[in-house]
Write a structure and sequence with these properties.
The complex is a heterodimer of chains A (about 325) and B (about 325). Chain A is mostly helical. Chain A is built from 13 helices and no strands. Chain A has one domain: Orthogonal Bundle (MetI-like fold). In chain B, about 45% of the residues are buried. The longest helix of chain B has 18 residues. In chain B, helix 5 crosses helix 7 and helix 7 packs parallel to helix 8. In chain B, strands 6-7-8-3-9-10-12-11 form an 8-stranded mixed beta sheet, sandwiched between helices. A 4-stranded antiparallel beta sheet of chain B has the order 2-1-4-5. In chain B, a hairpin with a 2-residue loop joins strand 11 and strand 12. The chains are: A mainly alpha (about 325), B alpha/beta (about 325). Chains A and B meet through helix 8 and helix 9 of A and helix 2 and helix 4 of B. Chain A: It is found in: Cell membrane. Chain A: InterPro entries: BPD_transp_1_N, MetI-like, MetI-like_sf.
Chain lengths: ~325, ~325
């Protein structure tokens, strides 16, 4: 098993390397650079050219890539162009906690809601609650995030006034437990918006997996052994039904960070999703590259975790 | 054999409620007894209701199926009246079952040892260590020479025959009085089949249990059973000792089954086949359920369903051909 995990980590390294090439190439392929947005007619173009020269934008692309890579490997992604004088890594780190709070909150709600309902639906197929859950599943998958976010803001923030419509914290937040509750209060609407689609898909997956497993021969064996329904469900069924859910979790793990771009935009929630949107608008290359690389890294790490979890849960993978 | 039967099934009815208000009478009025120490075979084609009979005895019928009537007396207790909780104390303990598909009947994510010990720990108040010792012993009995290693292995590391042995070890773990073997060798190669059946015969002696052997293979019946019941259309159509059945089959369906077997003694151009297929359980013909396939069908066969009557001593058949001989 350790050998499997070790091999899996070895594979991770070339993938990460390939990721850096793709991120870099994509950005270089996009037209323009940070200075092409400056349209001041009084500005002498030679000034911009000098700035390009100084920042190394005129060097051959491979040189630029290796310079970026060697600095990135040391955790140095350069300075932001928009926020002059601020390190990219420092900028990202200042926003990252907000996004993580949002992602973890949303994932937590998703799992708490989706897994029990999925199990219930599978055990009571075609019951009223199952039909309701199915309907909700289609709704969750069909309604786009930004639309649901806007409706939620209109209903729960503007009309009912239950939750704040934007931001991550109140101006009056003074820390402590009250401050924590204030943060949670700000997380509710964006968190639910972010979790809507994944709740729907986890629920559908869970239902179909549990239903399949409950109909399998080894569940009949477990019942024939005289095990109680509880043991049959929580030991024999869940362990098998969770195997495909882990794959989904591998993707979702990356989405905790990157999937929040639109939601954060709708709720003007100052996380890294917002930062990405701003940076794209400003052609803030160093920030865009660092963020894209980070999103890719999170997806890779998510899949790595999923594969390791697989090998723990499913013995058939371990011995391959 | 004038002992009290270990299992007495009376007028068992298990129906399935299908879409469109169709009712499939998968088991429709089955009576039989199993005495201590005997192997009783239940024979029939696919769809005759033999597996549903066995699952009904275990009370493992799931929706949309339901046991609609009759009684299942097991060591004097009527299982029908027991709650699910009381049933869990009987299943796997006094009454155990092994299945057709050893490849899928074991849970792929737990070790063989875990799955044997689980049953032991559920029914017997023993420690983990005692359960482990017992599990190793059981694996040795059913023919695993390296039991200490096998106990840590997962089902996918074993072959089909070995998995069926492991299933048998699980089934035997609590010394059941009755073992229901639902087509235990259908999915295995011929050589492995013989080994598993011989193992079952040995285990029957060693553990003093009775076996209800469900099969569609009359060859297995001839070698391993004491008595045999032939099932068709959710009902027993003939019931007698194995010797009698092969010497003098009464029911036309049984005759058809026997004629479809190759035999060393008789030389034939073509093996016999019963025309047609088993009718679906929601659409039996009126009258005798075999009437539309029966070469001897008479007028009254299409009118009413004959009863299972004792035609000769210890030999019952459900057929109008023997009306006079009763």
């Amino acid at each position: 098993m350790y050998q499997y995990i070790f091999r899996r980590i070895l594979v991770f390294i070339p993938m990460l390397f390939a990721l850096t090439i793709i991120v870099f190439a994509l950005l270089k392929a996009a037209p323009g650079d940070p200075y092409s947005k400056i349209l001041d007619p009084d500005l002498d173009p030679s000034v911009l050219e000098e700035a390009r020269e100084a920042k190394g934008y005129n060097d051959p692309i491979p040189v630029q890539y290796f310079r970026w890579l060697s600095m990135a490997a040391q955790g140095d992604f350069g300075e932001s162009i928009r926020y002059v004088g601020r390190d990219v890594s420092e900028l990202i780190l200042s926003r990252l906690p907000n996004t993580l709070y949002l992602g973890v909150f949303s994932l937590f709600v998703t799992l708490i809601v989706a897994i029990p309902i999925g199990i219930y639906s599978a055990r009571n197929p075609y019951s009223p609650l199952d039909y309701f859950a199915t309907g909700f599943g289609f709704f969750g998958l069909a309604v786009p995030n930004f639309f649901f976010g806007l409706v939620a803001i209109y209903l729960f923030a503007i009309q009912l006034g239950w939750f704040p419509s934007q931001g991550y914290i109140s101006v009056s937040n003074s820390g402590g437990f009250g401050g924590f509750l204030d943060r949670l209060h700000h997380l509710v609407l964006p968190g639910l918006t972010l979790g809507l689609a994944s709740t729907a898909s986890y629920m559908r997956y869970m239902r179909s997996e549990v239903l399949t497993v409950l109909g399998s021969d080894y569940i009949r064996t477990a019942r024939a052994k005289g095990l109680t329904e509880r043991t049959v469900l929580y030991k024999h069924t869940l362990r098998n039904a969770l195997i495909p859910i882990i794959t989904l979790f591998g993707f979702e793990f990356g989405a905790i960070v990157s999937g929040a771009v639109i939601t954060e935009g709708v709720f003007t929630f100052p996380g890294i999703g917002m930062l990405l949107l701003e940076s794209i608008g400003n052609r803030d290359y160093p920030v865009i590259m660092a963020l894209t690389l980070m999103f890719g890294l999170f997806i890779l790490v998510g899949n790595l975790i999923a594969d390791i979890l697989y090998s723990i849960v499913d013995p058939r993978i371990r011995y391959d | 054999m004038e002992k009290t039967p270990i299992l007495e099934v009376k007028d068992l009815k298990t129906y399935f409620y299908l879409e469109g208000n169709k009712v499939a009478k998968a088991v429709d009025g089955v009576d039989f007894q199993i005495y201590p120490g005997e192997t009783v075979a239940l024979v029939g084609e696919s769809g005759s209701g033999k597996s549903i009979t066995s699952l009904s005895i275990m009370k493992l019928i799931d929706k949309p199926g339901k046991i609609e009537g009759g009684s299942i007396l097991f060591s004097g207790t009527d299982l029908i009246s027991l709650t699910e909780k009381q049933m869990t104390k009987i299943r796997g303990n006094d009454m155990a079952m092994i299945f057709q598909e050893p490849m899928t009947a074991l849970n792929p994510v737990f070790t063989i040892g875990n799955q044997i010990m689980e049953s032991l720990r559920k029914h017997q108040k023993i420690s983990k260590k005692e359960a482990y010792i017992k599990a190793v012993e059981l694996l040795k009995i059913v023919g695993f020479p390296r039991a200490e290693e096998t106990i840590r292995e997962y089902p996918h590391q074993l072959s089909g025959g070995m998995r069926q042995r492991a299933m048998i070890a699980i089934a035997l773990s609590c010394n059941p009085k009755l073992l229901i073997a639902d087509e235990p060798t259908t999915a295995l190669d011929a050589t492995i089949q013989a080994q598993i059946l011989t193992l079952l015969d040995e285990m029957k002696e060693k553990f003093h249990m009775s076996i209800l052997l469900i099969t569609h293979d009359l060859g297995i019946v001839a070698e391993h059973a004491d008595r045999v019941m032939v099932m068709y259309g959710g009902q027993i159509v003939e019931s007698t000792s194995v010797e009698r059945l092969f010497e003098n089959p009464l029911h036309p369906y049984t005759r058809g089954l026997l004629e479809s077997l190759p035999s060393i003694d008789r030389e034939v151009e073509r093996l016999g086949a019963i025309k047609g297929i088993v009718p679906p359980a929601f659409n039996f013909p009126k009258g005798c359920r075999f009437s539309d396939r029966c070469p001897y069908a008479m007028e009254e066969c299409h009118q009413s369903n004959p009863k299972l009557l004792e035609i000769e001593t210890n030999h019952q058949a459900r057929c109008f051909l023997y009306k006079e001989s009763v």
